[in-house]
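Rather than argue in generalities, we have chosen a single entry, letters for residues, whole numbers for local backbone shapes, without further comment.
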Amino acid sequence: KDGRRDGVSEFFHYENGNWKRRGNYKAGMRDGLQEKFYQNGQLQIKEIFIDGQKNGLREEFHSNGQLRSREKYKDGKRDGFLEKYSGLGQFLSKQCFQNDIKADVSACTP
């Protein structure tokens, strides 16, 4: 609409035909599920946007499909736990963020 993206956009930049990115747009801004892929077709990043800002769960994956990190966003800022994992799926660390600022882990415990 009016030269702005609206609806689902898919980008095929890999020669093998695999998606590089796909996601929803509303009035030219990211809105809804956004996904980015490795050249091998494995999901690299999955995140939610509302009105152009990250909101909700964001997950990043290693190229073998194992979870790399998991974190939550609110109004475009980290808000909650950031968990990191090895390429073998082993838990590595946990950090807490409030309003995009690193905080004591106890601040994120419900």
